[in-house]
# Entry
Amino acid sequence: MLKSLIFIGIGGAAGSILRFLVSHFTKKFWNGEFPLATFLVNLSGCLLIGLFIGVMLKWQNLGTDFRMLLIVGFCGGYTTFSAFALENFDLLNSGKISVTLIYALASVILGIVCVWAGMALSKLI
# Structure
């Protein structure tokens, strides 16, 4: 159990740092009302989790440690569902219903597509 917690912590720290960096640099170049930074983080996180799961299914000898490190830790620390929910709430409160709908629907639909794409990419490895 302790070993799993350590792997989760290391992965979570790395994911959180990468999320901060992606958000920081995206916001430097994007100042529109669409929350592009969280959108990019969540879609790339979906792609990565699909890739990680696909690789782990292919190479089953990787074991639980890699799952804890990459899926639970890294992807859990990297993706931002709470920020996604807050941004949708703020958009609704600002009366930006069309942006809210586009953001929410595109995030969910493209997120699923990215998980599929990640799993498909894992077959090339």
Observations:
- The mean pLDDT is 95.
- The CA atoms of residues 15 and 78 lie 4 Å apart.
- The two ends are 30 Å apart (CA to CA).
- Residues 2-122 form one domain.
